[in-house]
Amino acid sequence: MTTRRAAQPLNPEARDAANEAVWQEMDRRGESRRQLTMESEDYEYRRMWMDAYIAAGGAVENPTPGRHASTPTRLCQPGGGATLVSLTVIRNATQNNVTGAKNWATVKNATGDVIVEATTNPNTPETWQHVQWSGDAGVAVPGHANQRQLSRSVSAHHHVVAELCGASDHVDIWVLWAGVANHTSGTTPANAVQFGSRYDGTENLGARSYNGGNSAVGKVVPVATITPAGVHAVVQSGWSFERQKWRHDFKDGARDTSRWDSSWQPDTSYPSFQNLVPDANDKIYDRDAPNIAGFSGVLDSYERYDNFREWVEWNGTRCSDYGGWYWRARWKRDQTPQVTLKELNSGSISPLPSATGNHYSAPP
Known about the structure:
The protein has helices spanning 12-28, 43-55, 71-76, 125-128; strands spanning 5-6, 60-61, 83-91, 103-107, 114-121, 132-135, 139-141, 144-150, 156-164, 167-183, 206-210, 215-219, 221-227, 239-251, 254-260, 265-266, 283-285, 291-292, 301-314, 317-318, 323-332, 339-346. It has 364 residues and is mostly beta strands.
């Protein structure tokens, strides 16, 4: 049998793909990465490298008679019968809540590569060797010349193309992530749910007084920008904007046991306060408005020290880092105006006050 050798000069793209395929297999086996040569005794790895090199479009010289020289011509001649049947994703991406037959999506993750597979007719390793890959096609899967693997460690849009005997197919893979920014100043973005006549009757964000200064509200609009750019046309549903709270509040100079948290508690907005369909800028929106006033049952004073954190999920999987914001406010009945402190900002109150950290004493 004639030994297969890569034609010189090497195809750089195919070389890098073959190297990466072999190195990943070495990693999987717990072996140190090493460079292969035709004189290396690692026959299994040399064969794997060559399979991956050919699958990535690399040419060979002195091919095995009856296989690599004649097979492509024979396969692609009229009546040869070789066809590319389909290209699809078989692992770690979904079409649930995705628009378009060729589009797939997944949430960014450091592990679990997306696997794309070409089906051919005949669907045999002999035929797979001649599938040509292009676009953003990742790297070869060791031992599977009809598959490619794409990392999802970075949010990106991958356009993967496979071709055989003049026929081609493609898939587009969207690796999703979002950045959360809590807007605590300026005005309510046009595509967010507006505040309307509530509270101070404006769309001005931040810590706002109303009712003659005897009430105050913290008007915040968390905005998530989804990547990669353009995803709004492909992934229009499946999104949720989640929020939790951690409060240490005081009522009449003592800890308010009904609003004193020892861990993060659910605080997600009502659906009517959110816009979860990405707009043309790939953004979705939340809204919140913690307030302070002479609450029912409060005789003398109330103090709020509340941390919040927002994040985005897609299809139930977290799809962003946490974005924190806080509301700090005080109310005193015998003061004019009664709101003596109002503060809304990104970040957190750290640490939250202890059980004896109240500002106002209990009434006599």
